[in-house]
Amino acid sequence: MSRILVTGGAGFIGSHLCERLLNEGNEVVCLDNFFTGSKDNIIHLMDDKKFELIRHDIIEPILLEVDQIYNLASPASPIHYQYNPVKTTKTNVMGTINMLGLAKRVRARILQASTSEVYGDPTVHPQKEDYWGNVNPIGPRSCYDEGKRVAETLMMDYYRQNNVEIRILRIFNTYGPRMALNDGRVVSNFIVQALKGEDITVYGKGDQTRSFCYVSDLVDGLIRMMNQPDFIGPVNIGNPHEHTILEFAEKIIAMTDSKSRVSFKPLPQDDPKQRQPDITLAQEKLGWNPRVSIDEGLRLTIEYFKTKLKG
């Protein structure tokens, strides 16, 4: 049994990770400032004696005794991370420094939840871990893209300079229950619009591609990576099955029996045209493969949003 800190533990991915770690018999400390996280996501864990919730912003240092740290704290959708871009950068830079300082002091292993956004609008397809990316450092998305790139830099420097045990994992588009209704990302937007019978907003021609990974598969990848004895990453975790945004909109309309129509709007600045992970390294090093099909994952996610919209 380990004592494990999850920053951003009340968020969409963090809450699923906390739940899985508790089910495996660990003590879990969930740290969240509730900017995008929600008590609803973790309320069912509060009665567990091995679960502890601390309201805290990782921009400020904190002293805790833990064995492992999963650093997931950061707004992750453009709507949220562009709301206060300076704060987003601070969370990824100052927050990561604070978590690395904690890991160094208590000799904990730390996993940084990085992102496919470090590849920017990629000129290489699919994206492998050795690709350095094509990021606009002064664009509206750069607070997140560059924030996560600096977080990876800090991880490597603490590893080289202070022998901190690190793991770096790059998350590609993830979806599933507990995504926020106002998340602003493709899956939640399309499902909520379809269930309400509103027009489904597709940017550009809808020919840009995304690869969607169900949350339980991602959590499995996070835990495998953390407990991998010698491989520090970075490693891509995502579903390599690629869809155009338009196909995706049509699929959701069909699955929800919606009367919604697709409406096209101009493409936002620096929106990546293609996004598909090369997961060879995850398969080789972690024995990881996504197991939940897009149809099964969407079915579960649609059920969740139906309940949410009723409530």
Q: What are the segments in which pLDDT stays under 50 over at least 5 consecutive residues? A: none
Strand arrangement in the largest pleated sheet:
3-2-1-4-5-6-11
Strand content: 15-25%
**Largest sheet features:** 7 strands, parallel
- Helix/strand-derived category reads alpha/beta
Cα-based radius of gyration, to the nearest Å: 19 Å
Identify the overall geometry.
globular
Q: What order do the SSEs take from the amino end to the carboxyl end, as H and E?
A: EHEHEEHHEHEEHEEEHEEHEHH
Distance between the termini: 37 Å
Oligomeric state: single chain
Fraction of residues in helix: 25-40%
Task: Report the mean per-residue pLDDT as an integer.
Answer: 95
H/I helix tally: 10
- Strand tally is 13
Detailed description of the structure:
It is a single chain. The radius of gyration is 19 Å and the shape is globular. Helix content is 39%, strand content 17%. The model has no long low-confidence stretch (mean pLDDT 95). The protein has 10 helices and 13 strands. Helix 5 links the parallel strand 5 and strand 6. Strands 3-2-1-4-5-6-11 form a 7-stranded parallel sheet, sandwiched between helices. It has 311 residues and is α/β, with parallel strands linked by helices.
A few lines on this structure:
The protein has 311 residues and is of the alpha/beta class. It contains ten helices and 13 strands.
